Amino acid sequence: MSLRSSGEVEQRGEIDSDPRRSALSEWVGVALGMDAPADLLDLAGDAGFRRYFRTQTEPSLIAVDTPPQLTNPARFVALADYLRSNGIHTPMVVTADTTEGYLLLEDLGDTQLYTVLNNDSVEGLYAEVMSELLCLQQIPFEEQLFPAYSRELLLKEMRIMPEWLIQELLGYRLDEREKKLLEQTFELLLNSAEEQPQLLVHRDYHSRNLMIRDGERPGIIDFQDAVWGPATYDLVSLLRDCYIRWPRERVERWALAYAATAEAAGVMQPVDPQLYLRWFDWMGLQRHIKVLGLFPRLSLRDGKQGYLQHLPLVIRYVVETAGRYPELKPFADWFDATLLPQIESQPWYCDYRSAGDLPK
User: Fold this and answer.
1) pLDDT digits (tens, 9 = 90+) for 44-98
2) CATH number for domain 12-106, candidates 3.30.200.20, 3.40.190.10, 3.40.50.1100, 3.30.70.260
3) CATH, range 113-354
4) Is 9 helix (H, G, I), strand (E, B) or coil?
5) CA 146 distance to own-chain centroid
6) How sure is the predictor about 5, in pLDDT bands with cuts at 50, 70 and 90?
7) Which of 138, 158, 231, 249 is the most buried (most CB within 10 A)?
């Protein structure tokens, strides 16, 4: 959640034209014992339906508009409390009206991990956030809080890609042979996910959801979709981030070091390194196939155009990973021959082969 505005309060007329924002402002004012509605500054939102605002108080707080018909504010509060009780630095819930969908949270600041990552800082920063991930993965299972990351849900996610990238964005119609190829590829990835140890999965553990504060442990946000699922999911979300890329050799070194630490901590049983890397790669491919559909959906359905600029890096991950495994080569060849020529004509496209690289 980073500041979208220059810091000036919205004009009252603009606020009044947004009934939920106005109601949230009044609710915050009452919650904080003010004599008037609270002044709120807009903050950049996430990929969901929640909106975030910063109060003009000392210390500042984060007010959240989370429409109950579109989100689950009660689950957010329950998850935040459970994770904090297990030592994770999620934002403290100051007060909440889960019926109306208004929350008031601790302010974890504006410094996303993404904004401070570079070739010099990455080793130390990733060590911190991988330590937090290990803490997450040691949290006990709570049936009421963590639904299974089931085959059905993982498959549903991957099917976003043919619907929203291929059909809606590219305007391409798959034939029966192509549909079968995709379903066979998805089946391989589902089997790999099912083989893995099942642990708590944040489900969006990446550089824009990890907040860095001097002298404090990293803050973790956007945890409301947490599930119980494959052990490599959050790790590959972090190390093969959709917004920044690191060389494959470095990523594999980090992944295997994390696996060894997780084994030593008793989070999972010892696993052959090559098998672990295959789990890691194939889990990343499942996630990136999902994102190839998710980002176009956010653009076309929700009007969030900024996500399309990140598709070339996601394409790079898909092409590189699928091309390394004989079982996935039919999918890689089809993607290269059929989809890439159409993708290259899109206005948002840039050469995927260098996407995500840091300046040298």
Assistant:
1) 766 568 899 999 999 999 999 999 998 999 999 999 999 999 999 999 999 999 9
2) 3.30.200.20
3) 3.90.1200.10
4) coil
5) 17
6) very low
7) 231
